[in-house]
Amino acid sequence: MKLLFSDYRKKVKGCFLGKNIGGTLGAPFECFRGVYEIDRFMQDVSQPVPNDDLDLQLVWLSAVEHEGKNLDSHILGEYWENYVSAVISEYGTGKNNFQMGICPPLTGVMRNENRNSNGAWIRTEIWACLAAGNPALAANYAYYDACVDHAEEGVFSAVFLAAVEAAAFFEHDREKLIPIGLSYIPQDCAVAGAVKLVLERYAAGDDWKAARKKLLMTYPSSFGEIGGEWKGTALVPACPACPVQERDPDLPKAQHGYDAPASVGIVLIGWLWGEGDFGRSICLAVNCGEDTDCTAGTLGALLGILGGEEAIPSDWRQACSEKIAICTLRPDLLLDVPATIDELCERVVRQFPVVSSRACRMTEHGFEIEPNKNLCYSESEFYPYQQEDCRELLSEQGRTARFHFRPYTVKVTFEDGTANIAEGREKRLFVTVCNRLYLPQFVTVRLTGLPEEWPVAGGRERCLGLEHWHGSQKEWGQSFSLSFTPTGLQQGKYVLTLQLSANGRGEKNHVDLTFLSGE
């Protein structure tokens, strides 16, 4: 099975065109709770409508264009800090943590009430397009992206959708695509539970309204509580298609920021009950209320991948501007914001051979894409150092930071999952250095930056022998426990530096770990 360049480009265009249409359709109803019957745009859409769902992916596009495929959470965090102007909710918390020197994935965990919300899964299309046919790679990038400002369900939702979208470039059967996405996330997480609930209600013959209510009763969302029940706005007054809503006493109050499970479930409701019809599907997503621009935008993108640009009816395409208007970015010549959806797609397509070179065969008319043979997880789909196993990343529950250098990768696990320290309380880390070369190495790890009076178990310098990678991933790294006890705390912030040097190599690499005094 192969995908020609011309067909791939049509699917990328369908993806971002569908994203733009769905996001625009749902924009007036975002943050409100209600059950509607809309079947068209309810506002003037002759001018482009800015949407953070698309904005944020322009930052990742710039990162790929300038840094290549070797992206990780630290690089994405730097681009986030430089170019994302939004400081609300999880966007601001992750950015603030990063600016303090806290490293991902702790940036998405610490002090983050919105870690389980929607800001990450809404920006997965860029990874799906750049890893078309390779859901494992898309899931890996989605993790690195999401953990900058999310954790737990906020990350699981991004990984699920990125995998589904990447697989949709080759697999068109909905009953196969959904299990592919589920194969990449923990089966006991709430996102998986919400997906399975919607599938069960669809199989049982419920209508979409009954499925929506069951979903929100089982996985309450706080998004519709932000604006409350829909009463109409100056932009879109209440009308028969979107009447004034009354509170539903059966829906329980949600935990603040716990929105991803229900929202992913609503995407599934639109997809299932829409029965493949583009307009009906995205309208159903909006008709469920809550985070309407995100659910309809993501579903529109998925349907655009499945059918390509031609599958989006002309009345929807012609009614929505293809110009790009930004609302959450600080642009400059490096970011170089594309002016139109078409320009965005051209730039994404050019980066596919960079990110997915193993699946790309250049031809006279562009390239062909050949997918991984198994779109669900299998051990054979991992290439050394090109990507990591997303299952391992997710199993660490936001406690392990990764630092990638040319000769080795350094993993630092925070035992308690935070960067906080307290007087007289032992702080324990676990450090693993993984060899990235087909050569054995001795690596010296020296600890600097901590006050001399702080006891450090095992001393402040270690030498690790790393074997070369030779087919067994279990034999190419060495680990040690690092414990220290703060005493006489006088500062609010301390920085521990791990200085690494390989025997016989001139370069030194540094890992800076920030610790904050207090709870």
TrEMBL record:
Keywords: Hydrolase, Magnesium, Metal-binding
Keyword Lipid biosynthesis: no
Known cofactor(s): Mg(2+)
Superkingdom, natural source: Bacteria
InterPro entries in alphabetical order: ADP-ribosylglycohydrolase, Ribosyl_crysJ1, Ribosyl_crysJ1_sf
Residues the entry annotates as binding Mg(2+): 291, 293
Gene3D superfamilies referenced in this protein's UniProt entry, alphabetically: ADP-ribosylation/Crystallin J1
GO terms for MF: hydrolase activity; metal ion binding
Cofactor binding comment, as recorded: Binds 2 magnesium ions per subunit.
Similarity comment text for this entry: Belongs to the ADP-ribosylglycohydrolase family.
PANTHER family: ADP-RIBOSYLGLYCOHYDROLASE (PTHR16222), ADP-RIBOSYLHYDROLASE ARH3 (PTHR16222:SF24)
The protein, known as: ADP-ribosylglycohydrolase family protein
Phylogenetic lineage: Bacteria, Bacillati, Bacillota, Clostridia, Candidatus Gallimonas
